[in-house]
Design goal:
The chain has 479 residues and is an alpha/beta fold. The chain is built from twelve helices and 24 strands. It folds into two domains: 268 residues, Purple Acid Phosphatase, chain A, domain 2 (4-Layer Sandwich); 182 residues, 5'-nucleotidase,  domain 2 (Alpha-Beta Complex). It has a six-stranded mixed beta sheet with strand order 4-3-2-1-13-14. A six-stranded mixed beta sheet has the order 6-7-9-10-12-11, with helices on one face. A five-stranded mixed beta sheet has the order 19-16-22-18-23. Helix 6 links the parallel strand 9 and strand 10.
């Protein structure tokens, strides 16, 4: 081999090495896209738009994972009062190809038996690391789950919020034999998962402030996809080098997280919330599936008539408490603000669909025998806990909260329907819903008499017996 041949031979080898190196580098660069939702609250009418969005993303990216951060139930009668409660949302999520979800507090609203059935119906796993449910009707829930896509392993860790009483914000009666740990008390048990995957992701239902605390205490996480606080993060929040995303509520937005890897190492993370509510070309196949659920004739049944529009949440709350009072022949009735899920009721026909939208929880009425002192404790304890804001609607009469200079409630003036104050010596029959009965702080809570009357059925009876119904003025005041 002469010098020229030797030179050409060396050049060919170098060129081959360069070409092979280029090919090797390309195959080692991978991209995973995560589409995320949270706090859907049964809004199946948004699924045709979501389907269009998912299909558009999949057309551009081969490796797409669809995830949900909890609260799939409660907020839409077509889901909450379907013949099989909660099934429509799970059916559509299966159809769309969700890969994983975490538990939200409203997953428990229909009770453990229905939740277990819906988990079994789902073609995707449901995870939560800080629930202890192995002895309950719900059975065990996996704390985490690993998904492999194109050779890349993504480990998802599920976490749910708890309140001061160490349970999520739901009806405590639905949590028998279940306990929960504070999310921060569980993170040490799962730090090592970072070593077994290419990306470690918190799929949480904690709220954005708790997500920030989680990021501070658990820097092993690469991303937190969150829910519960209904926060719209159009761009990511970064805490302790952890990316945090959340998409608001009711499928107005979907989250888009892009992860880029080189030779198995995560090199780039981006997040944005994408507006899907304005999508005009809804997926036709998904539209037909949604129509199947929303066109059920039972929801269109006319119950009665509103003589005038109900234009505030309190006017609707007054209607609910009037119905509870009438159904149980009580002296006084209270209903919590969070239990009224719509703020307006138009003039004209009132349908079952609208009543189920007002009260989607399926609550029933519980009566208590209470003194004036105990009734005041019920009102004041909640007022002082809820950012010094009125929480309980009332029937009949009215009440006024008396505050001190710091704004704390110190006393309550409660008037009956004749504008006369309630008296200390009398025992009053008080109607509450089952959630308030066991969750609110007052003497002998949880010890009332449970009726077989649902709040919705009480409204149906009341509206049908008092045609047409009219809104009433406010009954709660602060002084």
């Amino acid at each position: 081999m002469d010098f020229l041949e030797w030179k050409l031979h060396i050049y060919s080898i170098v060129l081959l090495v360069i070409l092979l190196s280029g090919c090797h580098g390309k195959t080692d660069e991978k991209e995973i896209v995560i589409i995320s939702t949270n706090d859907i609250h049964g809004q199946i009418q948004q699924f045709p738009k979501l389907a269009t969005f998912v299909n558009r993303v999949k057309a551009k990216h081969p490796n797409v994972i669809l995830v949900d951060a909890g609260d799939r139930f409660t907020g839409n009668p077509y889901v909450d009062y379907a013949e099989e409660r909660g099934l429509p949302i799970i059916t559509l999520m299966n159809e769309l190809g969700y890969a994983i979800g975490t538990l939200g507090n409203h997953e428990f609203d229909f009770g453990q038996k229905i939740l277990r059935t819906r988990i079994n119906d789902a073609t995707f796993p449901i995870i939560c690391a800080n629930i202890n449910s192995s002895r309950s009707e719900l059975d065990s829930i996996a704390p985490y789950h690993t998904i492999e896509k194109d050779g890349i392993k993504l480990c998802f860790l599920g976490l749910i919020q708890t309140e001061k009483d160490h349970i999520p914000s739901t009806n405590p009666g639905h949590l028998q034999q279940i306990t929960f740990d504070n999310y921060l008390d569980k993170i040490d048990d799962y730090r090592q998962l970072k070593q077994s995957c290419h990306a470690f992701i918190g799929l949480t239902h904690l709220g954005v402030d708790s997500d920030s605390m989680l990021a501070t205490r658990m820097p092993e996480l690469d991303i937190i996809i969150g829910g519960h606080s209904h926060t719209l993060l159009e761009k990511p929040k970064r805490v302790n080098n952890v990316l945090i995303g959340q998409t608001g509520i009711k499928l107005q937005y979907a989250g888009l997280t892009t992860l880029k890897f080189k030779r198995g190492k995560l090199t780039e993370r981006t997040y944005e919330s994408c507006l899907i509510d304005t999508i005009t070309l809804a997926d036709s196949s998904m539209t037909e599936k949604v129509k199947f659920f929303v066109n059920h004739p039972r929801f269109k049944q006319i119950i009665g008539t509103a003589a005038l529009p109900f234009e505030s949440q309190e006017s609707i709350g007054n209607l609910v408490t009037d119905a509870m009072l009438s159904a149980t022949s009580s002296d006084i009735a209270f209903y919590n603000q969070g239990g009224i899920r719509i703020t307006q009721l138009p003039q004209g026909d009132i349908t079952l669909e609208q009543l189920l939208s007002i009260e989607p929880f399926g609550n029933h009425i519980v009566t208590h025998e209470m003194t004036l002192k105990e009734i005041k404790a019920l009102i004041l304890n909640r007022f002082n806990r809820e950012d010094l804001a009125i929480d309980l609607f009332v029937s009949p009469g009215s009440y006024t909260i008396i505050r001190d200079q710091q704004g704390n409630g110190t006393d309550v003036l409660i008037l009956d329907r004749n504008k006369k104050p309630l008296v200390d010596e009398q025992i009053y029959k008080v109607a509450l819903n089952n959630y308030v009965s066991v969750d609110y702080d007052f003497p002998n809570r949880g010890k009332g008499r449970h009726s077989d009357i649902s709040v919705v059925n009480a409204m149906i009876r009341f509206i049908q017996s008092d045609q047409p119904v009219r809104p009433t003025k406010g009954r709660t005041y602060i002084k």
